[in-house]
Design brief:
The chain has 80 residues and is mainly alpha-helical. 92% of the residues lie in helices and 0% in strands. The longest helix is centred in the N-terminal third of the chain and has 37 residues, at 3-39. It is rod-shaped, with a radius of gyration of 18 Å. Residues 46-80 form a coiled coil.
């Protein structure tokens, strides 16, 4: 693989990791709101935060899968 292609693919992996980390940060922030709701209950907000947490968790999983797939392509391209 030429150097330009290697660098392009490596940048993409870093971006994907950054997206995954951002999603994990969102989950942490949602968890803080959910924790705060123990002190100040609001059923509607709790329901919304639980739904957001589930979607963010699903996003982390999808991004993790995308990273794994892209890493396989990256490794195969390095061996070519």
């Amino acid at each position: 693989m030429d150097q330009a292609k290697y660098q392009e693919m490596e940048k993409m992996l870093h971006k994907l990791e950054d997206i995954k980390n951002s999603q994990k940060s969102i989950i942490d922030k949602i968890n803080h709101v959910i924790t705060d709701l123990f002190q100040h209950p609001d059923k509607d907000l709790e329901k919304a935060m639980e739904a957001a947490h589930e979607k963010a968790s699903d996003n982390v999983e999808k991004i993790r899968e995308a990273i794994e797939d892209y890493e396989i392509k990256f490794n195969k391209a390095q061996q070519s």
